[in-house]
From TrEMBL:
This is Fungal specific transcription factor. InterPro entries: Carb_Metab_Trans_Reg, XnlR_reg_dom. Residues 82-154 form the Xylanolytic transcriptional activator regulatory domain. It comes from the Eukaryota. Transmembrane segments: none annotated. PANTHER family: GLUCOSE TRANSPORT TRANSCRIPTION REGULATOR RGT1-RELATED-RELATED, TRANSCRIPTIONAL ACTIVATOR PROTEIN DAL81. Pfam families: Fungal_trans.
Amino acid sequence: EQVFLDRLRNHDRNFNPPLLAGMYILALNWWAQDPKLASLPKPDSKRLEEIASRSLASAMQRPKLSTMQAGLLMLQRPDADSWSLTTQLVAVGQELGLHLDCSDWAIPVWERGLRKRIAWALYIQDKWSSLVHGRPSHIFAANWAVKPMTDDDFAEDAPVTTRSAHKTEEEATETARGQTIFMQMISLTAIMAEVVDTFYTQSAIRDFDAAGPHATRLILERAKPVQIKLKD
């Protein structure tokens, strides 16, 4: 965040267009709550969405991490066509190696953390979209080598100016809360994914049908491990 704000203040023009458009689209939700902006004409959100969609499609031809960030932001719109775009992003993420363990890669520490954050955000998006749309997930545990998140994965080692280097106590608390919620959301999503894989795949449905009068007992046996994880 601080690096981004520094670049913005210094009039850096090298921002990824769909990422910037995605940020603006979501920020417009709070336009009326800002005293400085509320009285001004609100930007055309439809026009922004057109720019974001067109530039995102172009960026996917030669994707970067910022392409993934832009796509994930675009998916947070209430009326987003989430399943088709989610499917595309999973494919792009695999092309970028986001499903792999980057712990030993010869890249900066901040980039390792960024890759993990984007990877787990993609995991969350894929699993919940799968549930909402009733479609098979495109991320499988057997091919998901990303290590669990730690507090160190949120560190931003890139240089910032003195002006932005110091957060207020309230900002620091809010940042820490956001990091905790993100990591807990990953854990909850993993449990939800296990529920879907245990009860709602085609193979699971066949198993329950084949169990006949013993189906209830089979369901309860499979439910117990998941119930324990939810309780914890």
